[in-house]
Write a structure and sequence with these properties.
Strand order of the largest sheet: 10-9-6-5-13-14
Helix content: under 10%
Number of helices: 1
Order of helices and strands: EEEEEEEEEHEEEEE
Low-confidence stretches: none
Strand content: 25-35%
């Protein structure tokens, strides 16, 4: 009657009154909490109201009010349905944007054939199965091409960087190491091509605008790198990136000797950590 759909589960013990905390268990251990189990209500009180987790905030065994939005006590008084209420509970809207991988860099290189053409990604959490992620290369402003590269089913540790290159030889010549993955069919980026990162088939991060060829984010014969502590976003924000400039790497034979150095594997997830 209130939400227009049936609940997934029913349990008569769900007798919460707004000043009651919630614990989530996995294999007998607490892995997430709402509120303080030793306190009745206080600042997190949702009596005759609601509270909802903020996008990209993570599970925690210590309650953090900053990770939540409260509708306010008595916010739903006299409401007959969620849709008709002045204070709408944001049902099924949470987005876990920090789901492991983010795009951290892209380069359109100066060596023969415009190589290396590559992207760099960063794992901000342990990833048990990389195959849940994929990358799309939206060429020439023609819109999304969907997932074109899918990672193999393998583990990636938090704090690790992953590189995908069109080929390996020129990548190694430029950066002094092999790329983690090679895809000669799809990584044909030319500086004016946008990048999409997918998780479970949904876009979770982008570089550039898939419907625009280049624009102010153009990295042709150059590079772009994510600023420290900036987060994944499905809407591109130029302020989260540093561009080397178009033609910045022309005539360079290696990253180490170039006047415009691509800041390889340097992204830090927060300004206070060393990862």
């Amino acid at each position: 009657a209130y939400f227009g759909e049936q609940p997934d589960f029913v349990d008569g013990s769900v007798n919460i009154n707004g000043d009651d905390s919630i614990e989530l268990f996995y294999d007998g251990q607490v892995i997430d909490v709402y509120g303080d189990v030793n306190v009745a209500g206080e600042e997190w009180n949702y009596m005759d109201g609601w509270s909802y987790r903020n996008d990209a905030s993570a599970a925690s065994t210590t309650f953090d009010l900053a990770s939540w939005t409260l509708g306010g006590m008595n916010a739903v008084d006299s409401c007959s349905s969620n849709a008709a209420c002045a204070s709408v509970f944001p049902l099924h809207s949470y987005k876990h944007l920090s789901t492991g991988l983010i795009i951290t860099g892209v380069i359109d290189g100066p060596r023969t054939g415009g190589l290396p053409k590559a992207i760099e990604l960063y794992a901000n959490a342990d990833i048990p199965d990389l195959s849940l992620y994929g990358v799309g290369f939206a060429n020439n402003g023609g819109g999304s091409d969907g997932i074109e590269f899918t990672f193999p089913s393998e583990f990636a540790a938090a704090g690790s960087f992953l590189t995908i290159s069109k080929e390996a030889t020129e990548f190694e010549a430029y950066f002094g190491e092999q790329p983690d993955f090679v895809d000669d069919s799809n990584v044909s980026i030319n500086g004016d091509d946008a990048i999409e990162l997918f998780f479970n088939g949904q876009v979770i991060d982008v570089y550039g605008d898939v419907n625009v060829k280049g624009g102010d984010w153009n990295y042709m014969d150059g590079w772009s790198y994510r600023n420290d502590a900036s987060a994944a976003s499905t809407t591109f924000d130029l302020a989260s990136w540093t561009l080397g400039g178009m033609n910045a790497v022309d005539s360079c034979s290696s990253n180490g000797t170039c006047a415009s150095v691509f800041p390889f594997h340097s992204y830090k997830q927060s300004l206070s950590n060393s990862q």
